[in-house]
Amino acid sequence: MIYFDTDYMEGAHPLVLRRLVETNSLHTVGYGRDAFTARAKKLILDRCGIDNGEVYFLVGGTQTNAVVLDRLLDHNDGVLATDTAHINVHEAGAIESNGNKILTLPGHDGKLAAKDIREYVETFYSDATNEFMVRPGAVYISFPTELGTLYSLDELRELRAVCDEFRLPLYIDGARLAYGLKGEGNDVTLRDIAALSDAFYIGGTKCGTLFGEAIVTRRPDLFPRFASLIKLHGATLAKGRLLGVQFEALFDEALLAETTIDNDSASDTSASDENVSKSEKCCEVLYDRIGEHAIRLAMKLREAFHVRGYKMLIESPTNQQFVILPNDKLDSLHKVASFELWGPRGATETAVRFVTDWSTTEEDVDLLIANL
Amino acid sequence: MIYFDTDYMEGAHPLVLRRLVETNSLHTVGYGRDAFTARAKKLILDRCGIDNGEVYFLVGGTQTNAVVLDRLLDHNDGVLATDTAHINVHEAGAIESNGNKILTLPGHDGKLAAKDIREYVETFYSDATNEFMVRPGAVYISFPTELGTLYSLDELRELRAVCDEFRLPLYIDGARLAYGLKGEGNDVTLRDIAALSDAFYIGGTKCGTLFGEAIVTRRPDLFPRFASLIKLHGATLAKGRLLGVQFEALFDEALLAETTIDNDSASDTSASDENVSKSEKCCEVLYDRIGEHAIRLAMKLREAFHVRGYKMLIESPTNQQFVILPNDKLDSLHKVASFELWGPRGATETAVRFVTDWSTTEEDVDLLIANL
Amino acid sequence: MIYFDTDYMEGAHPLVLRRLVETNSLHTVGYGRDAFTARAKKLILDRCGIDNGEVYFLVGGTQTNAVVLDRLLDHNDGVLATDTAHINVHEAGAIESNGNKILTLPGHDGKLAAKDIREYVETFYSDATNEFMVRPGAVYISFPTELGTLYSLDELRELRAVCDEFRLPLYIDGARLAYGLKGEGNDVTLRDIAALSDAFYIGGTKCGTLFGEAIVTRRPDLFPRFASLIKLHGATLAKGRLLGVQFEALFDEALLAETTIDNDSASDTSASDENVSKSEKCCEVLYDRIGEHAIRLAMKLREAFHVRGYKMLIESPTNQQFVILPNDKLDSLHKVASFELWGPRGATETAVRFVTDWSTTEEDVDLLIANL
Amino acid sequence: MIYFDTDYMEGAHPLVLRRLVETNSLHTVGYGRDAFTARAKKLILDRCGIDNGEVYFLVGGTQTNAVVLDRLLDHNDGVLATDTAHINVHEAGAIESNGNKILTLPGHDGKLAAKDIREYVETFYSDATNEFMVRPGAVYISFPTELGTLYSLDELRELRAVCDEFRLPLYIDGARLAYGLKGEGNDVTLRDIAALSDAFYIGGTKCGTLFGEAIVTRRPDLFPRFASLIKLHGATLAKGRLLGVQFEALFDEALLAETTIDNDSASDTSASDENVSKSEKCCEVLYDRIGEHAIRLAMKLREAFHVRGYKMLIESPTNQQFVILPNDKLDSLHKVASFELWGPRGATETAVRFVTDWSTTEEDVDLLIANL
After folding, report:
1. pLDDT band at A283, cuts 50/70/90?
2. Position A273 pLDDT exceeds 60
3. Strand boundaries in chain C, DSSP class E
4. I need a labelling partner for A5 at 20 to 30 A (CA). Which of A187, C288, C321, D63 fits?
5. Do the Cβ atoms of C242 and D11 come within 8 Å?
6. Is there a contact between B75 and C135 if contact means CB atoms under 8 Å apart?
7. HSE (CB half, 13 Å, CA atoms) of A161?
8. Interatomic CA distance for residues C249 and C253, integer angstroms
C-alpha cells in the first residue's frame, strides 16, 4: 500500500530523528531554557531576517492558533478569517473556547481578500451601535490555505496594508509552510512572511518533525508574558529541548551540508533531488529540501492528472492535490493507494485528495500514476 | 557535573526511544487511531484491572489536569485540593482559565484529608445561601504529592468513601506515579489507584517517555465526547501513535523480557537492579523497573543524609528528597552537583531538593554522597 | 416630536409602575424568594399550560440568552441560529464569551428552516472527523425574528420535530413576544410556544416593564443548579421581587379587570382599544393588551405605507415596520418624528424602521401618517 | 415584625422612586446615552473631585465586580483579596468564570494589609519559575468590608503606595459605601476613595435605589471599550436612564434641598435627623443622608448591646452589627424581629447580624432595644 492520505502519517525525517537520538542522554534544564532551543531560535530568526524578534515553540497547530489568538485578541474582539479557515471548521471551537468570536468572510479559492476585510471593518466602525458588536481584532490566514492555494506577494502586501490601516495584527498559520514556500509559481519568501505578518508559525509536524510548531514574531511587544499564557493553556513542553533539537535540525545549514557529504543515505529526501544546482544549495536547510521534495512529487502527480484529463477540484500549486475521480477509478485506486475523500462520495464521481510530504518516494508516485 | 534537579532533564529511556526509532518510518492514521495506541491502551487497562474503561493519551501534565477537570466539573463547580496542589500553585491558572475555582483545603504533609473534605462539603450543603457559593464538584489529589509523600491504602479508601458519599469524582494526578508505586513502605498498587479513583493519569514525561501522560478511567460515562474536548484544548497530538508507541514500551511485559535477555546493555536501568528476584520479574514492565531504580537510589541518598545527621525538610519515601543544608555545604555541593533550592536561600541554611529518576546512575549517587 | 425609534424608550406601563409604587415600602426577602415572585411564576406557568415547569426572572435579554445557552450547551457544543440572529450580531460576543460557537445557517425572512437544521446536523454526524468540529447542541430562534417576521405553527412544529429527532433543545428568544403573539395572521399561542420549545423567555423590557425577562421552561431537568449559574453570570437581582411584582402585573387577570373598571385612566393603552369585545377580554391580561395595542397601531401604519405606495423592506406583521423611504421624504419626516435608519443611508432612498409599543398613541400614528 | 435582616429588603428611597415616577413617560434613547445619565455622571464626578474620569452604571454588585475585574485583569492575572472577600465567597465563582484566579491573603478584621500585598508580590517576582504562577494583576478591597469594618485613611494610603510600587490597580467595592462614609470614626471621604483607588463603585442597591451601582474611575485609560465589555457580560440595561435617574436623585443637592423645604414628609429619613446642623447640610445629598440615618440607628443599637453586656463578634462602626446572643435571647427576639444568624447556630450562643438602612425607623430600633 502507498499512502497519500495526509502529511503526518510517518514519524520524523531521519535527520531530525537522528538528532533526537544523539542528544537523548544529555541533561538540560526544562521548558525550553536550554541551549538547543536558544540556537534553534537564533537560526530561525536569522533565516527570517528578523533582528529583534522572538520565537516560541509549541507542540501542535490547534494549540498554537489558540494561544497566539488568545494573546492577540482582547476579550471582546473577534478574528477575521475565511469561512473555510481551519480555526473555523476543524479546531473544535478552540478559539471560541477562549471567549473570542470568529468573524467569517467568504474565501476566494480559500483566500481572504483585503477588500473584504476593508469593507467589513469600515462597516463595523461606521455603525453607531458597534459597541454591541464584536470588534475585528486580528486577521488570520493560512499559507498555504486549506485548499492548497497560495497568496501572491502582492496579495500579502494588500493584506498588510489593510491591517496597518486598521491596526489589525496579521497572523499566518504555516502548518504546511515548507510546502507553500516551494509551491509552484510561489513568489513569497520566508522573509516576506516574516516581514508582512505580525506573527506566523513554521509548521514542523507536517514538515519533518515528530511534532512542533515555531511561532515567529517581529513584534514581541504584542506577546507580553507569553510564556505564562502558554503554560495556562497547558502548552508548555517539560522537555522543551525536544522542540529546539528538532527545529535546529530543520534550520541548520551546517547539519544539512555535512549530512549530504558524509552520510547521504541517512536522508531519503536528498537523494532524489539531484537537479538542484550546487550554488542554490549553499544556504539550503532541511526545511527547504523537505518542501522541494514534496512539491516536485506533487507537481509530477498533478501533471499526470492533467495529462489523463481528470478534472481538478481546484488547481493547487502545493503538496495537496484535489482531483475529481470517477467512482470506479476511485475504487480501483483504493486497492493500491490510501487517500482521503474530500467531502461525501458522489453518485458518479467524487472529489479526493492526494498529499505528498518529505516521506513520499518517487516510487510511490510512479506507482500511483501507473494506476491512474 | 551530576544532575539531581528534576526528573525531566533527559530524553526518553533508551528502550522507549528505541521503539520510536524502530517505528519511525511506518505510515499510520493520525490522532491516536492507530494500532500502537490501541495496544498500549489495552496493556494499561489490563494492568489496571479495568474491564470497561478507557485510556486517553495527552502530551503533558498541566494540559491533562486542565482537560480532565474541564470535563468533570460543571461550569459553576469547583475542585477541592490542598493549597500546595500543583493545579493551585504551578499551572499558571489553567483551571481558573476553564472557569472553575480551586477550593483549597490545608494539606497534611501535602495530603488531603477525608475529614477536611467532609467538613467542607457538609458546611456547603448546610448553608442556605450556597447557591451563591461555588459547589465542590470534584476532588484532586496527587500520588505522590508535591512533597513526595504518599497516601496509604487506608487513606485512599477514606477519600473514596467521602467521595462516594457526596458523589464527587476523585481524580489522581500521577505525574510521578512510577516513583510513588515503588515508594518505600507504599501499600498502594496500580490496581488500587485505578479502582479507588474515578480517573487518574499515569505520568510518562517524568517516568521514561519523551513526553506523554495516560489518563485512565473506569468511568468512561464521566467523559462524554472527550476526544472533542481534548481537541478544543489544543491537546490532540497529530501523530498520536508517538504516545501509543511510548506507553506500549512502558507497559509491554514481552518487550522488557526480551530486552533483558537479548540486549541488556540497551538499558542502563536494568543492570543495576540485580537484587530483584526472578519470580517477581515475571510480570515486570519497564514502568515498574523505572520506579524501582529511582527509588532504590533515592533511598540510598536519604540514608546517607540520615547517617550524616542532616535535617530533612520532610521524610519522603519517593524519588524527591528534601533536605536542609548548611549554606557552606550547599555551596560546595553545587560545584559537583546540580540541584534546586526549595524556596528562598536562608541566612545560614537552606532547604534543597534532590531528585532521582530512571536516568540517575549509581555512580551519580555515590559521587554525591562522597561529597556530603 | 413623536417617537418610533424602538420599544424601550419609555419607563414602565403605568399599571406596572403603579404596582411598584404600591409595594415599595414592603419588606421582603431578597433574590426572588418572595411571595410576589412566587405568584408571578404561578400566573405565568398557568397561562402557559405548564404543570411541572419553572420560571426564572432576569433583568435583560442579552443576559438571558447568555445564561440559558450557557446551561443548555456543553463546553464543546455550538448553537444553531440564523446569521442575522440577535445573539450572532448584537450581543457583543456574549455566547462566545461563554466558550460556545454560534453555528450560523441562512435565514429565510429572518427565520430558521427545519430542513437547514436537518442538513447541517446530518452532515455533522456523517463526518468521520466530527470530533474536531463543534457539535450542534441547541437551536436558537426568535419570535418574532429580528426582521419582525413570525413562524407559523406548522413551522414551529417542524422545528420541534427536527429538534426531537436530534435531541436538540429548542430555545426561543421572546424579547418582543407580546407583539408576536398579537401579530397579524399569527396562529401561534403562548401555550404553543411553551409546549414546542424546551425553554423560552417572555420579554418584559420591550413589553411593559421597566426591565425584566421571564425564562419559562417545561423542562426544569435541563436547568440544574440554575440559580447558581445565574449568580455566576452576575444576573441575580438582589431585590428580586421587583421582577415578580412587574410580571405579576403583566399576567394577573384580576389586576387588569379591576383596573379597567375602577381606574381606566391609569392605562393609556386600554382606552384606545375599545373594539375588543367583552367576551374576549374575560381572560385578558395586561401582556395581551400591550401586544394588541402596539400591533393595531403598527398595522394602521403599514396600511398607510401600502396606500401611499412605499416599498416595504420586508412585510412584517408585528410592531416593527421596515419601509424604504426616498431620502427627501426621510429628511422631512425626521423633522416631526424620531426613527432609525435600518443600515446605511442610500444614495436616493434608505431603509428605515418604525416601531410601536404600548406607549405609542393613536395621535402619534396619525401625525406620522399625515406627514407621509 | 421589624426587619434587620439586610439592607435590600425594601424598594427604593421615596425620593428616588418619586423621580422614577415623574420621568416614567418621557421618551429617551436607550443604553444610558440619555441626559439623566449624563447629568448623574457629572454630579458624581464633581462630588468625587474627578476632572477627567468616567462613570459607568450597572445593575448589581456581583456583575459590577466581574465586569470591572475582567477589564483590569489580563487573561493570566489574578486579583489579590482577603479570603473573606465577597468575590471569593459569595459570588458563585464569577471571577473564575472570567478565567481569573483570586489570590487570597488573610484578612485583618476583614481588611487587606499593605504589608501582606508587598510580601506576596515580592515573593512572586523573586520566584524564577513565576511564569508558571498566576501574576497578581489587581487588588480588591471593600469599603466597608464584609465584617462592617473600615480602612483608615492611612491604611488606604498604604494600600495605594504598594499598588503604585507594583503597578497594581486598586479597586474598591462600595456596595455599602454610604454606610462606610458615615461610619463612626471614619476619616475617609468620597474624594479620598476616588483619589486613592483606580476604580470603585458607589453602591445604590443597598443605599437607596431599586438597583444600580455606579463604577467611578479617574483612570478611563484602564477601561478601553468598556461599554462593549459590559454588553458582552449581559450587563447593559436597555432603559439605561433608570440608573441615571436614580443616581441623579442620590447625588443632586438641589433635589434634596428643595425636597426638605417643600415636601419634608416625602422623606422618612430626613425627619429623624434633626441634629445635623444647617451649615453641614448646605451641600448635602440624599446619599449622605441615607448613610447618616442608618449609622445613627446602628450606633444606637450598638450602644444598647454594649450597655446590656452582650459580646460583639466584631466592633463594627457601620450599619451591620454583629453580636453574640444567648440562644434563648435569640429565640425570643426572633418573635418580634427578623434578622440573620451569622454562621451556624451554636450550642448555647450564636452570632447574629442586625442591619440598618435608610428604611429602618427609630421605632424599629427602639422596639428591638426594648426586647434585648
Report:
1. confident
2. no
3. 2-3, 54-58, 77-82, 101-105, 135-142, 170-173, 199-203, 213-217, 311-314, 320-326, 337-338, 340-341, 349-355
4. A187
5. yes
6. no
7. 11
8. 9
User: Which of B76, B227, B229 lies at the smallest CB-CB distance from C228?
Assistant: B76
> Considering only alpha carbons, which residue of chain D is nearest residue B340?
D128
* Distance from C-alpha of C80 to C-alpha of C70, rounded to nearest angstrom: 14
Number of other residues whose CB lies within 10 A of the CB of residue A318 = 29
Strands C213-217 and C54-58: antiparallel
**Which pLDDT does position B259 carry in this prediction?**
73
What pLDDT score does D281 carry? Answer: 53
Determine the straight-line distance between the first and last CA of chain C, rounded to whole angstroms.
Answer: 15
Residue D28 to residue C6, Cβ atoms within 8 A: no
Verify whether the Cβ–Cβ distance B228 to C99 is below 8 Å.
no
How many residue pairs bridge chain A and chain C with CB atoms within 8 Å of each other?
A: 57
D24 with D210: CB under 8 angstroms?
no
| pLDDT confidence of residue C283 | 86
Q: Work out how many CB contacts closer than 8 A connect A with D.
A: 42
At how many degrees (to 10) do helices C153-165 and C114-126 cross?
Answer: 10
Give the mean pLDDT of chain A: 94
**Closest to C245 in 3D by CA, of D205, B132, D25, D10:** D10
| B304-326 per-position pLDDT tens digit | 999 999 999 999 999 999 999 99
Helix (H), strand (E) counts: chain C: 17, 13
Q: What ipTM score was computed for the predicted complex, to two decimals? A: 0.94
Per-residue pLDDT of B153-197, as tens digits, reads 999 999 999 999 999 999 999 999 999 999 999 999 999 999 999
Q: What is the pLDDT of residue B262?
A: 42
Over 50: is that where the pLDDT of A47 sits?
A: yes
Q: Are B76 and B70 in contact (CB under 8 A)?
A: no
Quickly count: other Cβ atoms within 10 Å of residue C119's Cβ.
13
Question: Rounded mean pLDDT of B268-276?
Answer: 47
Phi, psi of A152 (to 5 degrees): -80, 165
Element holding A170 (H helix, E strand): strand A170-173
Say yes or no to pLDDT of D94 above 70. Answer: yes
Query: What are the b/e assignments for B252-290, b being 16+ CB within 10 Å?
Result: bbebbeebbeeeeeebbbbebeeeeeeeebeebbbbbbb
Cβ within 8 Å of residue D110, ≥6 positions away: D82, D84, D142, D145, D146, D147, D148, D149, D314
Answer for the pair A228, A204: CB distance below 8 angstroms, yes or no. no
Residue A183, CA distances (Å) to A144, A151, A180, C203, D76 in order: 9, 11, 5, 56, 39
- What residues form DSSP beta bridges with D57? D214
pTM: 0.95
Distance of CA B286 to the CA centre of its chain: 15
Q: Comparing C-alpha atoms, which of D94, D54, D36 is closest to residue D255?
A: D36
Contacts of C96 in chain A (CB under 8 A): 78, 96, 99-101, 134
- The shortest C-alpha distance from D133 to chain A (Å) reads 8
Give D108's strand partners.
D111
Partners of D229 on chain C (C-beta within 8 Å) are: 92
Other beta carbons within 10 Å of C277: 8
